[in-house]
Amino acid sequence: MSSSGRNSGANSPLSFADKAAETIQKNFRGFKDRLKVREKAAFNIQQLIEYSEEQDHLNLNKFFLRWIKLIKHTDNEEINRYISSSIQDDFMKISESEIKIESNYTGIHLSEEFNQDDFEKLVNSFRNEQILHTRYVIMILNRAIDYLKSLPNINEINCIEDPEPEDRDNEFKVNVVGDLHGQFIDLYTIFDLNGFPSKKNIYLFNGDFVDRGAQQCEVLLTLLYGLVLYGGKYNSFFLNRGNHEDYGCSVRFGFKEEVMTKYCLYSKLLMKKCAQVFVLLPLMSMVYQKNNKHQINRILVVHGGISKDTDLNLIMSLERSKFPSLDGIYSGSTEKERREKQQMQDLLWSDPQSSLGCTFNRQRHIAKQ
């Protein structure tokens, strides 16, 4: 009787259902594991391709700079002056006052006073793939350059002092956004999901705004408008420099080409201003917030990484706009300049590694790992 009962239970529909559920769960877990392996392999392949592409361009750049040095018999300081003058010579000399808005221009118009309505208008127009008029582009770049000059090398994001103590329902939220690389639809989606910036809805964009994507100009202009508007009004919009916010990188990885395609005759003037923006971007950000024990946490956000040689005092005091490009052969005319450039390279170009320690980045041949 008991044996028969056990056999009957073993063959019951419930038992078959349990076995089927176990089989499905096992197969699903196996599928998820295989998917993770594929995703990791795809990421590693993509990273190797990126390293290889960047390294090819970097080696080519170093070759030509060494060739210039050999032909000219110059020292490092003269090479740096040559690079700077070459960049300046590449820009068309044109008066900004000569740029007028044509009667047949069908795009949006922006007020000289930055405001939220215009910001939303700008975002929506870029979402519809409209090209902003050159005059407004220059206006945004000029305002951004002036604002960036007032910023320190390290952004300070204060989430301790509540600007709206009466609003206890909404707590501070810091949205840290990684590499956009000209993908405006990603930026639009981020704003759509998390809301526009406000006193308690803070945005930190952690570098690599340009290169590769189809709307690099639009991403950069949106971020610069937001920086001037919300950074100045609410102290809730911050930008860190990435390794692609560099004149050398932007020439080789697509940004300059897009500027030339979209703004034709004025592209050299715009590239000059973008180069000014790049070198003025802060190098990192420090987020201050209280934990559950009312202690203050400090969170460092940087595009690349830190190394065993990172010196915060030197980073805070160095002149970040000194070097026209960080990926060239020029390393500085003095020991202090060499240390300063190395600090900046480590912050912008370093990569994490799975093993312990800090070593030279052999994949990029620049900065640390």
The largest beta-sheet arranges its strands as 1-5-6
Q: Taking Cα atoms only, what radius of gyration do you get, to the nearest Å?
A: 26 Å
Q: CA-to-CA gap between the ends? A: 71 Å
Stretches where pLDDT falls below 50 for ≥5 residues? 1-8, 85-91
Structural class of the helix and strand makeup?
mainly alpha
Number of strands: 6
Helix content: 40-55%
The total count of helices amounts to 12
Q: Look at the structure and give the mean pLDDT.
A: 82
**Would you list the SSEs in sequence order as H and E?**
HHHHHEEHEHEHHHEEHH
| Relative strand content | 5-15%
Q: Globular, elongated, flat, extended or rod-shaped: what is the shape?
A: globular
How can the largest sheet be summarized?
A: 3 strands, mixed
